[in-house]
Design goal:
By secondary structure, this protein is α/β, with parallel strands linked by helices. Bound molecules: flavin-adenine dinucleotide.
Length: 415
């Protein structure tokens, strides 16, 4: 493909297209590059027009820290009797809660409806509580959510928010033998339930292209950057000892999402030697959360602010069927010691609506959303943050992640 044609694409949108194929020696885009005749590269394979992220640490306007509610055995969907109340648990979704919420809610509500209750109580208003409540309404119940915090203050909105249905969902050695089947059912049901939220005003749920970039063949470990301070390694010893100890099930639903395609030569818009692209579903928390909450109220739902300290308090509720969605708080409140904290931190750069893609490069992921550009450090894979319940902000970690993108951007400017 004619290089000048690519430059035309790049300049049209002020983006970074047009540098494809020049991975080893990226060059600046001359503002006066001429427009030339069309190339022979099929439109679908041409480098897209992409805008650069303004990656500067002073544009980090928010840093959020969260604990993934990881349960070594996988999510708890068991049923318990507490006094005269039937309690259906729905917690422990690790790094997959946004993705699996509808499927998990469907399973919990089926159990709850086995008693044909007119009224159901839901404990918790994170993504699991909210989707459980709406699913119970759809099944015909009147629902009250009892919660300590509303969605915007829950741990749920401190997540990354991509379709990651098997991220830290269990330890392979500790999950029940049939967990793969349960997980698949959950994931497929969630996928189906997310469909009506696509294409809505404000894009509560959306698709974006995700570029994976590397200076060396994929699969090789990323060597440390001498210009960046190293991140401290995880301190956990025991099981899990490595990322591969976590349960992996994504292959079961490979038919739902597109496979990554290698980008070579002219169809690689980035100044790196190796690139691939896939298309990924993601959640815009503000719009999606607002839509779900409105849907809940529109169907007659009520929310009562309440802080429970002991399971026995549930028997004081007027509802005799309860769906329990406390997230990581189950560890203290329900004394569930198979809950393990997995700390995660996201940095947020000022939104840039013109940036309409995600990328992963040198263990840093960037995802552009309507309420900010999320950056997250991924060193040490699934072991990162394991058994770490420290929810204080580490600004240096997010600044470091921004610097990785800044360095990539600087290659576009080198002559
Ligand atoms: C950094 C990070 C990135 C992530 N990225 C993704 C991702 O890309 N995709 C994905 O699918 N998932 C992701 N996750 C995981 C996802 O965020 C969680 O699995 C999900 O938010 C869990 O939701 P929840 O409703 O169970 O818990 P929470 O959001 O913690 O909600 C719990 C609710 O229960 C209430 N509650 C708790 N205890 C009590 C009590 N005693 N009395 C009254 N109310 C109580 C709380 O107030 C809250 O309303 C990520 C997590 C982190 C930390």
């Amino acid at each position: 493909m004619d290089r000048r044609h690519l430059l035309k694409n790049s300049l049209a949108l002020g983006g970074l297209a047009g540098l494809g194929g020049c991975a080893a020696t990226p060059r600046a885009t001359p503002p006066s590059a001429p427009v030339t005749a069309a190339s022979n590269v099929p439109i679908a394979d041409q480098a897209p027009s992409l805008a650069l992220v303004r990656a500067h640490a002073d544009r980090l306007f928010d840093i959020k820290v969260c604990i993934r509610p990881f349960r070594t055995k996988g999510p708890n969907l068991s049923v318990e009797q507490i006094g005269d109340a039937m309690v259906v648990h729905n917690y422990g979704h690790g790094g997959s809660g946004w993705s699996l919420s509808w499927g998990s809610a469907d399973m919990a509500v089926q159990k709850a409806m086995s008693r044909s209750p007119k009224q159901i109580a839901v404990i918790g208003c994170g993504i699991i509580g909210l989707t459980s409540a709406i699913t119970a309404q759809r099944a015909g119940a009147q629902v009250t959510i009892y919660t300590r915090e509303l969605l915007p203050r829950t741990r749920s909105v401190r997540a990354n928010g991509s379709w990651t249905p098997d991220s830290r969902i269990c330890l392979a050695a500790e999950a029940p033998a049939n967990f793969g089947d349960t997980w698949e059912q959950m994931a497929r049901m969630s996928w189906k339930n997310l469909r009506p939220y696509l294409g809505r005003a404000g894009n509560p749920v959306s698709f974006t292209d995700h570029y994976r970039l590397s200076d060396m063949p994929f699969g090789q470990p990323v060597p440390p950057d001498p210009n960046l301070p190293p991140l401290p390694p995880p301190t956990w010893t025991g099981l899990p000892a490595q990322s591969s100890d976590f349960g992996r099930y994504e292959e079961r639903i490979h038919d739902l999402t597109p496979k990554p395609e290698a980008l070579t030569g002219d169809n690689n818009p980035f100044p790196v030697k190796y690139a691939s692209r896939t298309t990924q579903l993601f959640f815009n928390f503000t719009e999606y959360g607002h839509l779900l909450t409105s849907e809940f109220f529109a169907a007659g739902g009520k929310i009562e602010m309440r802080d429970f300290h002991s399971p026995s308090e549930l028997s004081s509720l007027k509802e005799k069927v309860v769906i329990n969605c406390p997230g990581f708080a189950a560890r203290d409140w329900w004394k569930d010691k198979s809950m393990m904290p997995v700390r995660g931190q996201t940095g947020w750069l000022i939104p840039q609506p013109e940036v309409n893609y995600a990328m992963t490069y040198r263990n840093v992921q960037m995802l552009s959303k309507s309420d900010g550009i999320m950056v997250i450090a991924l060193e040490y894979g699934d072991m990162k943050g394991y058994n770490n319940s420290d929810e204080s902000v580490n600004r240096a970690e997010s600044e470091r992640a921004v610097r990785v993108i800044e360095e990539l951007n600087s290659r576009f400017n080198r002559a």
